[in-house]
Amino acid sequence: APASGGGGAALCLLPLLLFLPGLAAGPAGMLQPRDTPSRERRELGGLWSFRADLSPGRDAGFAQQWYRRPLRQSGPVIDMPVPASFNDITQDPSLENYIGWVWYEKEVLLPLRWLQGDPAPRVVLRFGSAHYYSIVWVNGVQVVEHEGGHLPFEADISSVVQGSPGALCRITVALNNTLTPHTLPPGSIQYMTDKSRYPKNYFVQNIRFDFFNYAGIHRPVVLYTTPAAYIDDITVTTSSSDSVAMVRYQVSVVGSTANSLSLSLRDQEGKVVATGDGPVGELKVLNPNLWWPYLMHENPGYLYSLEVKMQAQVGGALLEDVYTLPVGIRTVHVTSTQFLINGRPFYFHGVNKHEDADIRGKGLDWPLIVKDFNLLRWLGANSFRTSHYPYAEEIMDLCDAYGIVVIDESPGVGIKLPESFGNKSLQHHLAVMEELIRRDKNRPSVVMWSVANEPASELPPAAHYFKTVIAHTKALDPSRPVTFVTDANYALDHGAPYVDVICVNSYFSWYHDPGHLEVIPFQLTAQFENWYKTYQKPIIQSEYGADSVPGLHSDPPVMFSEEYQMAMLRAYHSVFDKKRKEYVIGELIWNFADFMTNQGTTRVLGNKKGIFTRQRQPKAAAFVLRDRYWKIANESSCLPPVITSHSLFL
Asked: For this UniProt entry, what's an example GO CC term (predicted)?
């Protein structure tokens, strides 16, 4: 989308983005902040002060050091809700398509108990996500910078706030949404040099992905405390047999050598079912309640609670830290034809989604999240892919609790240019996978990692690139299969040899042979047979679908009508039904709901491939999919046959 302001802006963005001195987010643990007997948390949602840097070089904020004093003293500010994207909040079209640095600020008063004590507690500032590149100051002191728009980052701000007079904590954030060939997702800045057609220094941000590049502080900002010596990270893996499960754990502690470290695993009634001690070990659970997917068991999403207690001597004080981690006991295994959860074949009948809604953009919104999960369960969907970036922890929590299976995808979408396969991009991609796995490694709902979506994997450099990324991912987490989602020709894909499951996107009769539904059976059957013959790996149809404008009808079906969307789905389904008896292990519709994109001649207020509108109202295709998913669930379920598409699991 075009950026407002002079073109000197883009030239100044990259040096600022890449070379500003600061503290990089380190490799510490990334436990989700929780209230415990030893920890407090405070969300900083609400209205923040906001200012876009409209200077020709987008660099006035740094040149004038806006972070050194209240932002309102730098010039005009407006109120901006957090969490939310800033693009659609105002009536200013230049802000909707703004590219460059924007500034946020929030002033909060801290409780005195956070600032006192011997030793005083540790105070941490955490961002669930901010898109894309963030630099954060507290009381004018830089505390962290972070690249990437979809994963959390945090900073220990104890020394800053405990050394400041009074309890005021002024948080300033400079945020840049520029995408380059080496960011994830990638993009590029293009200058329009034809002076007869464009203003001086006019530029646009080009992207190679089909969703709007919303920007802002998208997820909760939290202040939380821990004792000075604290539990930094917990890693859990599980295995099970008929009557026994093993929960293996590793706990890391920072600040002191723990005098004692004890663990208690409790069931949902609060009963202790296993105990352990020490930083590494395993817990034996008799007659375990396994974590099962939705519609695969009468009690899906069963979670135990693992309480970890640490005591440590710091100076003359005996400190105790407590952290409770939800734990689901389940196993995942892939064969040449099946995907097994707890030893039973699992068929993905689900959706692809986006974090996207009116006004708030990609900002976390609880009513929307709960509505979406109610729609998923109404639909009979048992799974989704986090297309095309990691979703909020709050969404992932509900997947764990409700038994919704997740293919957890990195922001590796739009990797199309040859320079995006170079070492600079590769190193950042490896770092992103480390952040993603550190955040989501303990989630039972996450059954597979996806490292990318529709990259140019037919390019020769893709072989080394994806071999490296996938090997790195497997080294970080040997317990889960790894994939990426391809739309390349089966004979030309250089990354496919390294995945555990083939995930393929295709839009026969839409982007290929548009309007010709009759080609679907032939082309889709050939697609599956070619991929399986070449790789002997199970296949998921990870995307398929058609745009439909709500209320647009045509019989016989024509493109963009609700009838065409239904007809395309049914044509795909007839092939799925044949191949799922062999090696097709899943189908994920594109998309759950309509979503916003950049403006273009093929997009009328965004992408209309949703089976629900952007406002979450069903199109006719939603009922087609609902009937199908409940039928599949009843075929494979061990539950009583009274389960129908009209049962309420809400």
From this structure: lysosome
Q: What is the 3-state secondary structure (H, E, C) of 407-462?
A: EEECCCECCCCHHHHCHHHHHHHHHHHHHHHHHHCCCCCEEEEEEEECCCCCCCHH
Q: Kindly indicate whether the domain formed by 230-327 is annotated with CATH number 3.10.410.10.
A: no
The predicted model gives 313-336 an average pLDDT of 95
* Secondary structure class of 211 (helix, strand, coil): coil
Q: Which residues does the annotation mark as catalytic?
A: 454
Stretch (H or E) spanning 281: strand 280-286
pLDDT score, position 100? 95
pLDDT of residue 291: 98
- Other CB atoms closer than 10 Å to residue 491's CB: what's the count? 10
Q: Domain extents for the chain?
A: 40-177+213-224, 230-327, 332-636
pLDDT tens for residues 270-281? 999 999 999 999
φ, ψ (nearest 5 deg) of residue 126: -130, 135
pTM across the whole model? 0.94
Domain 332-636 grouped into CATH 3.30.200.20 = no
Q: What is the pLDDT of residue 1?
A: 34
Answer for the pair 614, 593: CB distance below 8 angstroms, yes or no.
yes
Sequence-distant (≥ 6) Cβ neighbours of residue 636 within 8 angstroms: 296, 345, 347
Show the tokens assigned to 646.
């009209």
Q: What is the pLDDT of residues 181-231, one digit of tens each?
A: 999 999 999 999 999 999 988 889 999 998 989 999 999 999 999 999 999
Distance CA 453, CA 464 (A): 17
For residue 264, how far is the Cα from the chain centroid? 30
Q: Which CATH number fits domain 40-177+213-224: 3.40.50.80, 3.40.50.970, 2.60.120.260, 3.30.70.330?
A: 2.60.120.260
Q: Answer with the residue of higher pLDDT: 258 or 648.
A: 258
Measured CA to CA, the distance from residue 231 to residue 308 in angstroms comes to 8
Q: CA-to-CA distance for 176 and 331, rounded, in angstroms?
A: 40
* Strands 203-207 and 216-217, sheet pairing: unpaired
User: Residue 27's pLDDT band (boundaries 50, 70, 90)?
Assistant: low
10 Å CB burial of residue 257 (0-12, 13-18, 19+) is exposed
- Closest listed residue to residue 134, CA positions, set 248, 25, 273: 25
Q: Among candidates 293, 447, 318, which has minimal Cα distance to 385?
A: 447
Tokens of 184: 């994830």
Could you tell me whether strands 339-341 and 344-345 are parallel, antiparallel, or unpaired per DSSP bridges? antiparallel
Q: Hey, which residues does 263 pair with through a beta bridge?
A: 276, 308
How far, rounded to the nearest angstrom, does the alpha carbon of residue 411 sit from its chain's CA centroid? 8
Q: How confident is the model at residue 636 (pLDDT cuts 50, 70, 90)?
A: confident
289's enclosing H/E stretch is: none
Tell me the pLDDT tens digit for each residue of 460-497. 999 999 999 999 999 999 999 999 999 999 999 999 99
Residues in the chain: 650
Which positions ≥6 away from 404 have C-beta within 8 Å? 293, 294, 301, 373, 376, 381, 382, 383, 384, 398, 445
